[in-house]
Each structure stands twice: as C-alpha cells, then as structure tokens.
Amino acid sequence: MMSNDLPPWSAVYQQTQRWLKAGCFGAMAHDLRAILRMALDRNAEPSAAILDSRTLQSTPDSGSRAGFDGHKKRKGSKVHLAVDTLGHLLALRVTPANEQDRAQVGDLVKAVQLAAEQKVQVAFVDQGYTGSEPAEAAAGAGIQLKVVKHHQAKRGFILLPRRWVVERSFAWATRFRRLARDYERLATTLAGYHWLAFAMLMLETLFAQS
Predict the structure, then answer these.
(1) Model confidence over 81-104: pLDDT tens digits?
(2) Does the pLDDT at position 1 exceed 60?
(3) What is the Cα–Cα distance from 62 to 184, expressed in whole angstroms?
(4) Which domains does the chain have, with CATH numbers?
(5) Whose CA is closest to 46, among 80, 107, 90, 81?
C-alpha cells in the first residue's frame, strides 16, 4: 500500500532494515534530545529518567512472538520505555506481553546509562517495579529506583509526580498509526520505529522553537 512515486516495497523494506540495524534512527534521536535539552539551558545528558511499559495488541504478523498480559487482559507485545524528564526517549526494549516489568530493569538501565554517558542517577517508576531485585539491578548500573505510588484514597484521575511524563510519551507514540498495534514480524523493527517516531517528534519541537 505504498505510494506509486516510491521505489518497490522490497527495496524500501531492505533499506529500512539496513538503517534499523545500523542504529541510524536511534543516533538521530539521541542527538536531537541533547540539542533540545541544551536549548532549554539543561545539561545535554539527563541525571534522571522515568521507566514504564505499555502493551500493544498483537496482529497476525506479530502473533508468533506475542504473550498474554494478565493485567491488561491483552495478547501482544510490551514496550518498555525509559525517557528523560522532558519525555524524550532514552532507551527501550520490546518483549512478549507476559514478561514482567521488573525483569527488564537491568537491561533497560544499562541502555540508559550507555545513552546518557553514565550521568543518570535516579529513575522514577510505578509500583510494578517494587522489590529488591529491580532495585539491585538498577543499583548495579549506578541508578536509584524511586517508586511513585498512587494515593491511598484514589478517586478519579490523579496526576502522579514524574510518572505523567512517560505516560505523555506513550501518548505521543500513539499518534503514529504504525505504533498503535504491533504490526511487525520482528521485535527489532517495532523498536526501531519507536526511535524514528521520537526523532520525528523532536524535530517538530525543534522547528517550532526556531
């Protein structure tokens, strides 16, 4: 369903896969994040991050690697995201939806520190990351996990400190129809399209500020 003025789909797909494997979209996102932070008189690399995940409904293309999320009652893939305090993407992982959030902390924080040049000191998370194992995994990368809990007397919508930032980032991603569900045969393609989407979002912000 590509436009007629584009090359054959096979050529476009192969070139896109080469860009994904080379990390081109991720490199763009990292550079744009640093530029936007410096434009706001912040350090190029953040000292804090926010972690969370969302479950994407599977499709026939992605069903072979899908898992069932018992909490969301949905079969699909889970995207584990780490963003800075402005909501810009730092790192992500794609797993089957049945994978626990806390089990991904170790790999996620290592990717965060690699992207942020070991500058991140604290990561804000929800109650799904409670426990000694995720705290120890984060500490191994030099990051302290801080759990932001719901108010005990919760009634209606409550804006939780720090947590709302990553929720907004997920909302930004849903503006891209390709990321509304998991349409990809490969998890690496789904991850790469997230990098591309956030690079496009940051470019839009950069042009709006100039």
Answers:
(1) 999 999 999 999 999 999 999 999
(2) yes
(3) 5
(4) 46-149+160-186 (3.30.420.10)
(5) 90
Q: Show the tokens assigned to 207.
A: 């042009």
- State phi, psi for 78 to the nearest 5 degrees: -115, 130
Tokens of 187: 């998890």
Q: Which amino acid, 96? A: P
Q: Is the per-residue pLDDT at 186 higher than 60?
A: yes
Residue pointed to by tokens 């972690």:
51
- Give the sign of the dihedral formed by CA 203, CA 42, CA 111, CA 126: negative
From 124, 60, 130, 58, select the one nearest 94 (Cα to Cα): 58
Instruction: Name the one residue in this structure whose structure tokens are 């947590």.
Output: 163
Residue type, 164: W
Q: Residue 48 is encoded by which pair of tokens?
A: 């804090």
Using a pLDDT cut of 70, give the percent of the chain over it: 93
CB atoms within 10 A of CB 173: 22
